[in-house]
């Protein structure tokens, strides 16, 4: 039984948790949530709804994801949890040696060097083929219509779009970046809040992906356009890289946290960091959320988890330790002893050998999906393939050029990935999907959502609305402006370098859907975004 109090809300906001019996789609854009629900009402299941929402998000929230990005999914269906890793590898021609020869000493944020093979279109096609009720053409149709007819920008979306335009105008000067401005600033500026924006190129590309079940993107006309654009501007991505790509079905990894099993995608995904932190925190007792002891222990556990993640997370074949060793109780006991009464500098341990959008869906058949998709750092690389609307991601920026590091750049290798879908079960039964988007805030958001739910019994909306913290580096932590002031002062006395953030933009934007014992769905979305829970 999910032990939450549906009436207890210590962090009241404009939103209330949403209850429904037949189906639910929660994401950061109302239009995308409604697209998923519309597909469900036409006979689609939760998987089809997730595809519809994900495809729509590439159009109605391009500031955070795109057709040229990556995706991960956790899918509960037919009594089992399935994991899909649709992140792409580095091109085969991209290596440390090639970059050093070109005089590159560090992987840049924008341009062709950090571009890796996009995986998102393959995720949509794979999910539809394996678990969907509908053909991809029906699931993607709402996204096609929004791209063709246009839609008005919502407030948070418009703010991020304007910020990206200003940053790109100042920093992206080469001719390879002009297609981005042609696509996302067709009038020489970012579209305004409430202004209609459309992209026929997006529509044509989405239609091509749907009609070919993704083949055109990896082995057809779209792949040829990507290859041509890369060659014209000295990029490394080639037709052969796209043609060789396939998404991977993986076994989710998890830890038991006070009777609940918390599940994540295994490396190269960064969900391991959230599990490492929860494994440390389950050794403490927490009676209240808003105490300095709770905040301090959470932050110290998070620092240790991130240190281990930075040292060890990489593509599976490159990891120098086993995931099961990192998540062992013996290793957690050893690391937990490092958490004292004052802030410490984080260091990785050695266990014994042995920009992003998030959405979740659920239907009356028992299917549930936790899905996350991203270009990274907002619009990604700043590159748009001419005439397609395909904004290419910059996930390769997470590689290191240190050949001795587990996450060093290698041809055909996947980088350490920040985007992570989460899922909660209890006694082998689904509780539901959850996620918090936002770079390296994501595992920190997962830990806080799980603890708010399990330790402090908050219903989904209260669990999301609660003030957030995030560890930044060394002893520096950032606290949301709604954090009680006595917490801020007390953490500073414990040696934390506390920054009090005036806004909420850097603290992630999440969604939750829980299934109650009677089958009723209860969902929530962030007050920090334009989010919406569509239900029926």
UniProtKB/TrEMBL annotation:
Highest rank taxon of the organism: Bacteria
Listed PANTHER family: GAMMA-GLUTAMYLTRANSPEPTIDASE (AFU_ORTHOLOGUE AFUA_4G13580)
UniProt protein name: Gamma-glutamyltransferase 2
Keyword list, A-Z: Transferase
GO MF term list: transferase activity
InterPro entries, per the entry: GGT-like_enzyme, GGT_ssub_C, Ntn_hydrolases_N
UniProt keyword annotation of Iron present: no
Organism: Cohnella phaseoli
